[in-house]
Every structure is written in structure tokens, then in C-alpha cells.
């Protein structure tokens, strides 16, 4: 099952790696610039010694006004990423088998289909965890100086750092697998999974926090 | 002769409609069984119940005495299946497909599969999606046979194939029967191709079993009676179908093993396989039994 | 390469195993097959005609039963030629009676087509009855 799962999802795995590469390409240089400014404005010592002084306040607000908006703006582009990854990978897992009729090939080998599905979901889920954890590591490193100043619960930060990126993606993935079973087609399953992701994501964004 | 496949009161319901009902069959090992019926008769449903792709609503199905309903690895391992339109992962090479088979099966005879593919000139490096329909059918067949199944199930294997590809496909199947003593169950609505390859007949119509048995016995158990035209329903026991022309009436009669005497006005002939099958398929279902 | 090659006519309505039996019989009658000739193995026939091996086995068993061939385990199936080409005496006698019958038929006003149809009908009936 490991080989087959790899063979069927390797294109998606490579796309995931490319996405990490792209994120690194965008955020590493910019993150270095932020760190430079962080030191230059003396934000670090201000945070350590308390933020009461006027000099510190002005240094921190200068730093934040320079970077917070644009950093959030950049990250906003990546907000739909968990939904897209989860929907594409999850929607194709069963949807593609039904759409091409290959479920009749896959489930008449000597692997019972519950075992087939369990193995695939676990292996692909593991891949998703690896890729999304790497992505959120990049995002987290990038925003770390800003988060030091504000807090990680500001919108834009929370959804892409730590565990939430992985959590959202796994949710969309599960929705995609389920939708693939229901619709038996790849594209409708992906659309449904993405819609489910948005239906979860928007209330969290505006009300829950 | 031992039993390869046995079903008892097998039934499958989709919603409120029964796709198959009351199907009790017993088919001997080493035989080649034709499953015949019009589209929508329940052929694919029966085959998918046998391969474990579907769980029956009622009844049992056993392959070599092993319950096929469980979908266990052992039950799956003894049945090779080529589904309608012989689906393959089109993006994979033939070698990839063979590797997939090895990773998903208990038994896997790769050398034999490679030899079969070489015999029909299919390179292992070729992408499945780039093969012709006939070649894709051969690859699907090689995958099914590489499992070394006791029962090979083929769902409409000849549909969409040109005459050469049909003959090549059936040749591979028949050689497998000769070499590996595999039992074959194949569905078809093309009747003409069956006589040279099949020795057992199972006839389905509207989800119910019309006829099952060795083709020789079935043919010997039926006669065509030809006589002067009668408009009234002739009171002949075992009448399957009456056809009338201007001058005379033909009756297909199920006689069983004994040869009853008929009225001297009726001349009696043996019946051919195709004629017999068509007669059963054309008649209204109610008269079937 | 075997000395003998089977054919299969899917549209003839004659059961396949009987076609094989008839071809061997005909081969003997026409002298294409002689005593000691080896028939193709079951697998060879299967591979060349895409035919059910059980059918070939059945045909060979029938030929053996009729004493035309002898199956030697591990070696193959060999013609024993208990049917020689039809002996001159019976051949002449049969031909004569057939001629007589055809003359009668023409005298009764049957045309060529009807004569052929009648022969084929009687022949196929007897043949299939013999097989059943």
C-alpha cells in the first residue's frame, strides 16, 4: 500500500514540496529584512525591559506600521491554502477512483477495502501533516518578530501558524474524502470540500475569536 | 465434479428495486460459464456480488466454499476480475501496474504476467493510457491472471473490442484455462462468440434466473416443433416461445432429458444455442417457469 | 508444426467439438491424415482457435471412442487410422444409391436448391441427434 499510495499521490506530494519552496522563496528574504529592522529599531530590548518608555513605544509602532500591514497582506494570500490542499488531495482520493472506474480494479485485489482506505487516509494524512507543518514553520518564523510585538491571536497569524494550518487542512481533506464517496466525481468533491472548509473558516474568522 | 461457485437465494436491492433476486446457482470447477442476458438483466450486479464489490441484500455466495460476502483478503485472492471497460490507472506504466498488483496481493506471478504481455507484444514501459483498447484489455487480463485466481470473472470483456482483439483476448483466456485450470465466468450480450468458448450457460432476465446448466444438456433438453399454423396457444407442456408465420408455427419446448412423443402433425428438430438464447430473451418473463 | 490444422466455423450451427471430430474424419477420408500422424496438442488447438480446452478434450475423447485416434499419455494423440479411405466397394454402392435418390427427386419435380436443402436438413438432424 505504501508504494501504491506514493505512486498515486506523488504528483501532489511534489506540488506540496514546490509550495514549501515557493513560500520559502517569498518569505525567507523578507523575513530577514524584518529581522534586520527589528534589531535596528531596538524592538527586542524594549520587549525585554518593558514597553513603558516613549522611545520604545515609538520604535515599536514604527516597526509595526512598517511591517505588520504588509506581512498580513502577504499571508492573506495563503489563507485559502489549507482548503485547497485538503480539497484537492481529499477529493481525488476516492473521487478519482469512482470517476475512472478504477475502484473495481483497486478493490478486487487481495486488500480488503476498509484496509485499503485506512492505509491511504493515514499515509496521505501523514504527508499532509508533514507539508503543512513545514509551511507553518516558514510562516511562523517569518512573523515571529511581529508576533513578539503583537500577539499570535491576531487574525492572519493564528490561521497559518502552529497547529491550525495542519488542522484546517486535515479537516478539508476529510471533507474531500467523504465528498468523493458521496459524489463519485473528482471536481464536485473538491468543490464541496472547499465549500465545507470555507463554511468552517469564515465563522472562525469573524465570530469565534 | 467439485463446485467453483455456489449462490443460494442471492438477492440485491437498490432502493426499492430488486436488481437480482432468488438466484441459486452451482457451477463446476474447470468450466467456462457464459452469463447471458439483455442490458439491465442483473449480470453486472451478480458479478460484483461474486467479486465482493457488492454485499448482497439477501442470500449467500461462495467461491470454492469460501464466503465472498466477507470481502476478506483470502476471499478476494481467489477471484480475478476484469471489470467492464477494463479500467486501469491510465497514468501508470504497465510495469507500475504489475508492481501495484504485487503490493496488493497474496500471490503474484509476475513472470507469467510478463510472458503473457510479451506474447501479445505489449512493452512494460508503455503508459497504460497510451495503449489501444485491445491492449488495455490484455493488460487488465494479465493483472487478473497474475493473482493465480481459482475463478476468473470477466464483465462484458468483448464489448468495445474489434474482432482481432476479441479473438486475441479469448485466446489468452482459453490458454489460461488449459494451463492453469482456472474456472471462467464471463458475461456477454454478444451471443455469437460464446459457443466455441463456453460449456455452461446462465441466463438472466429482469433480475431473475431463467436457465442454468451445461450447454450440451440445455440444448439436448429443448426441441423446436414445427407444424401448421395455430392461433390458439398450443397446449404443449414446457412451451418457451411460439412464433407464427403465415403457414406454420414454430414452438420452442423444454422437454427435459426424456424425449416425449409429439402429435404427428408437429415435426421436431434440435435447437441451436443462439436460437435458444434469443427465444428465452424474447419471451415475456411470466411464462419463464 | 503439426501436420494437421483445425478450423472453426462460428456460423455453421454445428457444435464446435463436432466440427473438430468431423475434420479429423474428413482428413482421414481424403487421405490428409494417415496412421501414426500426431494431432496437435490440446493447448496448440486452444491457442490457434481460441476455443475452450474442454471442447477439444471432448472431441479427442470422441475420436478415441470411435477408434480413430489413440492418446498416449505424455506424448500426444496419434491417428490409428482404423478408418481407411472409404473402400472401393462401399463407396461405389453409396454413390449409386445417392444418384438414384437424386434422379427420383428431380423426377418428382424438386429443383437443385430443394434437393440440397433436403439433404442438409436430414443430415444435420441425424448428426445432431447422434451427438445429443
TrEMBL record, chain A:
Keywords: Membrane, Transmembrane, Transmembrane helix. The chain crosses the membrane at residues 74-95, 116-142, 162-180, 187-204. One of its GO terms (molecular function) is ABC-type transporter activity. The keyword Aminoacyl-tRNA synthetase does not apply. It comes from the Bacteria. Pfam families: ABC2_membrane_2. GO terms for cellular component: plasma membrane. This is ABC transporter permease. It comes from Actinoallomurus iriomotensis.
Automatic annotation (TrEMBL), chain B:
PROSITE patterns: ABC_TRANSPORTER_2. The keyword Nucleotide-binding applies. Residues 5-231 form the ABC transporter domain. Keywords: ATP-binding, Nucleotide-binding, Transport. Pfam families: ABC_tran (PF00005). CDD domains: ABC_DR_subfamily_A. This is ABC transporter ATP-binding protein.
TrEMBL record, chain C:
Keywords: DNA-binding, Transcription, Transcription regulation. Residues 14-82 form the HTH gntR-type domain. PROSITE patterns: HTH_GNTR. GO terms for molecular function: DNA binding; DNA-binding transcription factor activity. SUPFAM superfamilies: Winged helix' DNA-binding domain. InterPro entries: Tscrpt_reg_HTH_GntR, WH-like_DNA-bd_sf, WH_DNA-bd_sf. This is GntR family transcriptional regulator. It comes from Actinoallomurus iriomotensis.
Amino acid at each position: 500500500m505504501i508504494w501504491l499510495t506514493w505512486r498515486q499521490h506523488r504528483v501532489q506530494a511534489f506540488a506540496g514540496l514546490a509550495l514549501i519552496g515557493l513560500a520559502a522563496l517569498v518569505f525567507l528574504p523578507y523575513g530577514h529584512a524584518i529581522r534586520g529592522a527589528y534589531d535596528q529599531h531596538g524592538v527586542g530590548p524594549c520587549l525585554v525591559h518593558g514597553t513603558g518608555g516613549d522611545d520604545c513605544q515609538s520604535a515599536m509602532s514604527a516597526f509595526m506600521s512598517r511591517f505588520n500591514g504588509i506581512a498580513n497582506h502577504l499571508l492573506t494570500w495563503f489563507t485559502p491554502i489549507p482548503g485547497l490542499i485538503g480539497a484537492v488531495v481529499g477529493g481525488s482520493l476516492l473521487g478519482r477512483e469512482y470517476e475512472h472506474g478504477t475502484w473495481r480494479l483497486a478493490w478486487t485485489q487481495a486488500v480488503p477495502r476498509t484496509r485499503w482506505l485506512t492505509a491511504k487516509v493515514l499515509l496521505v494524512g501523514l504527508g499532509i501533516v508533514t507539508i503543512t507543518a513545514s509551511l507553518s514553520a516558514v510562516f511562523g518564523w517569518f512573523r515571529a518578530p511581529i508576533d513578539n510585538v503583537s500577539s499570535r491571536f491576531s487574525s492572519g497569524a493564528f490561521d497559518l501558524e502552529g497547529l491550525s494550518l495542519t488542522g484546517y487542512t486535515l479537516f478539508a481533506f476529510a471533507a474531500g474524502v467523504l465528498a468523493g464517496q458521496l459524489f463519485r466525481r473528482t471536481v464536485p468533491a473538491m468543490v464541496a470540500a472547499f465549500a465545507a472548509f470555507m463554511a468552517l473558516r469564515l465563522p472562525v474568522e469573524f465570530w469565534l475569536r | 465434479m467439485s463446485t467453483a461457485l455456489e449462490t443460494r437465494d442471492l438477492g440485491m436491492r437498490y432502493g426499492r428495486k430488486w436488481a437480482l433476486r432468488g438466484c441459486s446457482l452451482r457451477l463446476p470447477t474447470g468450466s467456462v460459464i457464459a452469463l447471458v442476458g439483455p442490458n439491465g438483466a442483473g449480470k453486472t450486479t451478480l458479478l460484483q456480488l461474486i467479486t465482493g464489490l457488492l454485499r448482497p441484500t439477501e442470500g449467500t455466495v461462495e467461491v470454492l466454499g469460501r464466503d465472498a460476502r466477507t470481502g476478506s483478503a483470502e476471499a478476494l485472492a481467489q477471484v480475478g476480475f476484469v471489470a467492464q471497460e477494463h479500467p486501469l490507472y491510465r497514468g501508470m506504466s504497465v510495469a507500475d501496474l504489475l508492481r501495484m498488483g504485487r503490493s496488493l496481493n497474496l500471490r503474484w506471478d509476475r513472470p507469467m504476467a510478463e510472458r503473457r504481455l510479451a506474447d501479445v507484444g505489449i512493452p512494460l514501459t508503455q503508459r497504460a493510457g497510451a495503449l489501444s483498447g485491445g491492449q488495455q484489455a490484455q493488460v487488465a487480463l494479465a493483472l487478473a491472471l497474475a493473482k493465480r485466481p481459482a475463478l476468473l470473472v470477466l464483465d462484458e470483456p468483448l464489448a468495445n473490442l474489434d474482432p482481432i482483439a476479441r479473438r486475441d483476448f479469448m485466446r489468452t483466456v482459453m490458454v489460461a484455462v488449459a494451463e492453469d485450470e482456472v474456472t471462467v465466468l464471463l458475461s456477454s450480450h454478444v451471443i455469437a462468440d460464446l459457443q466455441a468458448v463456453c460449456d455452461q450457460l446462465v441466463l438472466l432476465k429482469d433480475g431473475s434466473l431463467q436457465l442454468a446448466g451445461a450447454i450440451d444438456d440445455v440444448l439436448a433438453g429443448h426441441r423446436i416443433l414445427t407444424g401448421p399454423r395455430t392461433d390458439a396457444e398450443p397446449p404443449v407442456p414446457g412451451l418457451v416461445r411460439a412464433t407464427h408465420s403465415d403457414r406454420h408455427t414454430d414452438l420452442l419446448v423444454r422437454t427435459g432429458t426424456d424425449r416425449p412423443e409429439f402429435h404427428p402433425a408437429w415435426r421436431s428438430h434440435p435447437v441451436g444455442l443462439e436460437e435458444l438464447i434469443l427465444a428465452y430473451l424474447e419471451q415475456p418473463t411470466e411464462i419463464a417457469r | 508444426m503439426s501436420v494437421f490444422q483445425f478450423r472453426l466455423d462460428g456460423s455453421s450451427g454445428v457444435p464446435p467439438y463436432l466440427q473438430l471430430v468431423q475434420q479429423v474424419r474428413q482428413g482421414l477420408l481424403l487421405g490428409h491424415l494417415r496412421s501414426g500422424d500426431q494431432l496437435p496438442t490440446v493447448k496448440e488447438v486452444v491457442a490457434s482457435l481460441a476455443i475452450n480446452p474442454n471442447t477439444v478434450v471432448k472431441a479427442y475423447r470422441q475420436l478415441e471412442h470411435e477408434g480413430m485416434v489413440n492418446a498416449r499419455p505424455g506424448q500426444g494423440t496419434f491417428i490409428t487410422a482404423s478408418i481407411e479411405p472409404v473402400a472401393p466397394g462401399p463407396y461405389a454402392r453409396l454413390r449409386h444409391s445417392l444418384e438414384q435418390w437424386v434422379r427420383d427427386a428431380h423426377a418428382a419435380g424438386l429443383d437443385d436448391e430443394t434437393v440440397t436443402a433436403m439433404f442438409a436438413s436430414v443430415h444435420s438432424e441425424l448428426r445432431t441427434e447422434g451427438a445429443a
